[in-house]
Design brief:
Low-confidence stretches: none
Number of helices: 10
Number of domains: 2
Order of helices and strands: HHHHHHHHHH
Distance between the termini: 32 Å
Radius of gyration: 19 Å
Number of strands: 0
Shape: elongated
Length: 166
Amino acid sequence: MAKAKAAFMKRGKLLRGNISKNLKKWMVKALVWSVALYGSEMWTLRKEDIKRIQASKMWIWHKMEKISWTAYVSNEEVLGLVQEQRSLMQVIKQRQAKWIGHVLRHDCLLKTALEGKMEGKRPRGKPRRKMLDLLMEQEDKKISYKELMRRAQSRAGWRHRHWNLP
């Protein structure tokens, strides 16, 4: 997120200038969100990470609209001004589902690593949450790994279920 803010600040004068709002939004999506979401397919997000992502998104919209943080303007009002919705987390989840489906359809070292079947000692404490755990919990109910693998084999079904595409 820091790199995304830096990318915004590099073009800050342009994005806060007197150009149309649609062009500003297009530039933010092309120049800032591409930096912010680089590698998001591999992220395992905690609640605090999600809050930081959403806060930085709102920071960018506030700066673009020249709204001070001391002004009492709610985030919903700012989203209304820029005519946007909270969709960044949905984009991240779609990217993750697309990537996981691709990996699960192939037999490779990366699939072995994602499954957690690597040899060696595990550190003390509670096991870290894996990306597969997050994907299995996103469903209406928790599903098994075998069921997730079965669903991933059908590319069209996977697209329809996880990307919301026809």
